[in-house]
Amino acid sequence: APDIPVIDQAYSKLSNSITAEWRAVPGATSYLLSAQGGDSFIETVVTNSPGTVTGLKPATLYRITVRSINSGGKSQPSRFRKAKTVLAAPVLSVSSPSCDSIAVSWKAVYMAAGFSVSLVRSDGLGRMLKENTTNTSLIFTNLDPGTLYTIKAYAWNVNGIPGDDFTYNQRTSPNAPVDVQVAFNSAALRAIVSWMPTEGALTYSVTASSGLLKLKCNTSSASCMMPSLQCGSEYYVSVTAYNDAGFSKPTDAISLKTVPCAPVNVSIEEDEPDHLLVSWSSVSFGHYYVVFVKNDDGLEVHCNTSHTQCHFQSDCGFTYFISVFAYNKAGQSPLGDVFNYTTAPCCPSDFRAVFVSSDTVHVTWTPVRGAELYGTRAVGWNGVVLCNDTATACTLSALQCGTQYSITVYSFSEARGSNTSCASKYVATAPCSPEIKNISKEALSVISVHWQSNNEEATYIVTARGEAGLWHCTSSGNSCALINLPCGSAFSVSAIARSPAGQSLPSYSVPLETAPCCPNDLILTQVTQSVTNISWSVGMGAQTYVTTLESPRGHAKCHTLRNYCLLGCITCSTNYTVSLKAISETGLTSSCTYQGYSSSACCPSGVKLYRLGNNGIRVYWRAAEETINYNTDLHGSKGNFTCTPSTGLSHCDITEIPCGDVYTVVVSPVTDNGPKLTFCPKKIYSVTCSGSSVGMVIYRGKSNAE
Length: 706
Prior knowledge:
Structural class: mainly beta
CATH class of the largest domain: Mainly Beta
Number of strands: 63
Number of domains: 8
Shape: rod-shaped
Largest sheet: 5 strands, antiparallel
CATH superfamily of the largest domain: Immunoglobulins
CATH topology of the largest domain: Immunoglobulin-like
Helix content: under 10%
Distance between the termini: 224 Å
Number of helices: 0
C-alpha cells in the first residue's frame, strides 16, 4: 500500500465544501478524502491534490483526513486537520417598490454576524452601491427606472470571514409613460391610445374607466386599440407600464367622450296635411341632431337642429325612410333604427261618373300614387252604396233614380289604410221612369196620356211608336196630348223623363189603337127600285162596317165584313142620310158621314100600248108623281124607239113603228144626270100588221129582266 499523505492545509471557500492540500505520495494513483463532523461522515475520491469534499453543512467544523490509494490498497488515514465551512449565502428576496428603488430582504443566516449587500447596474454603467448591515433587509433608492441591476449579498461571521455570496438581477419598475394620445374612431366606436415608450417597460396596460365599467388593453408596443366603446359615455383613459419588477404609476387620466348614442323614442306623425313631424328623446353628450328623410323616389332632405324635433314637407303616397343622428365633437352617433313612414295614398281627384242607366253609374279615375285598393262610396238619402276594387273603375248599381248622391273615391294602402280626406262630388242620378196611368181620347186625333210624376225638375217626353211612324209630346207636368195621330193605326206608347242629370229608362209601354179610318170613297148604286148597292174603299184599321140609310120613311142597315153592302126596302124618290161606321178588331168605332143619298124616282105603273093610226103607238102609264119626267124605250128586232113626253104627261106617242114585231117596253123616270134606270118593269108587246098599218097590240107579258 502507498504511504500516508500529510495534509498541508484545509480550508473552506464555499459553505458546502472544504478543500485540502497535501503532498503527492509516490505510487499513489488516487486519494480518498474524508470529512467527519458530528454524525456526518463524507468521503470522496480525487486523483491529486488539492481535493474538495462537498455535501457539507455551512458553518460546521469538520475533521479532514486523506488516504492514498494504488493497486496494492489504501494507506492509513493521514493526521486530520480541522476546518470549518463558511457561512451560507443569504437567500435574497428582491423587489422594486418604485421605479427608482429596489428593496432587498433575506432570512437570518446561521452563525452570521453581519451582511454585506452590493448593487450595480448590470450594464456596468454608474457606480456600485454597497451596504453592510446586521439587519435582514435594506432599500436602495435613487436608482434609474426600468434599469437592470445586479445585486450581490453575503454574510460574515464574528471573525469577519465572508460566507457564500448570492447574486440576483433585478430591474427597477418602469416609469409612467408620457405623451399619451387618444385617437377616437367614431364610426367603429373604438379608440387608439399611444404614448412614448418608457425605459425598461416590457408591456403596457391601458385602462378606460366609465363608472363601474372598466376596459383594459395589454400590449408590448407603444399603442393599443380599445374596441367596443359605448356610445354616449365618458371614459377616463390611463396607461401603466409593466416589467418583471412591477408596474409604474398610472398616467394622469385623459377624458374621452365618445359619440352620442343614436336617438331613441323616435316618433313620426303628420301633424298637419302634407307635413311630417319627427321627434325624439335627447341623448347624453348630444350637442345637435341631424334628421335625414329619403323617399322611395330617392330624393333626400335633412334637418339640422339643436332641438328634439324637425318638420318636413311630405307628399301623399310616398314611403319615407327616416334616420336620426346625434353629433358632438367626437363625431356622429351610430346608425340607429331606420324608420319608414308611409303617407296616406293620394286621392283620385279627377274621377268621372258616367251613368249606364238610371240606377247604375260607372265611375272611372286615373291611378294615384301609393294606392293598392280603391273604395267608391255613394251616399244618398236612402242609404250608402259601396264598391271596392283594385282597378281604377267601379260600377255602382242599385242606386235610387232621381236622387243626388255624394260620391267619393277613397284610396287604400296596406301600410296606412284609407285616405279619408278625399273630396266628394255630388252627382244626381237620372230621373225615375214615369208610370203611365191612363190614355184617353180627348178629341178627334187627340190622345191624352197621363202618368205619375215622381221626379223634380224633369221634362217628360211621351212617344207613340207604330208602323205609321213616331209621334211625340212633351210636358213638365203629368200629362200631355198626342195630336194628329193617324186613324186605324196601332201604337206602343211609352214615356221617359229627362233632366240635366240624364234620361230615365222608358216606362212600360201601353198599347194604343186609334179608331179605324173612314173610307174615302163611298158609292151608292140603286140596283132596283127598292134595293141599293153601297160600296166603299177600305178603311185603315177597320174589320167590319155598318152602313145605314135613314129617312123619315124608314131606314136600311147592313153590317158586313166586306166593303160593299146591298140595302133593301128602299123607298123610291126619297132623300136618305148616309152613314157608315168603321169598326176595328177590338171594337173601336169611327162614325163616318157622307153626302145625302136620294133614291131614284118611282117607276110608273099601268104601262099599256095603244094603237094609233098611220103606224103609230101610244104608250100610256100611270105616273107616280106629277113632277117626274119619264122616258119610254121600245126595243124590237126591227128597231129601237125612244119617246120622252113633256113634263106632267103620262103618255108618249111613237110613230112609224114597224109592225109585225115583238117589242120590249120600258118606261122609266128621267134622271138629271147619269144613265137611265134599268130596273123599271119591262113589258113585252106584240104589234101585228093589218094590211100596211099597225094592227092589234097584244100584251105578251113581262120581261125576265124585271
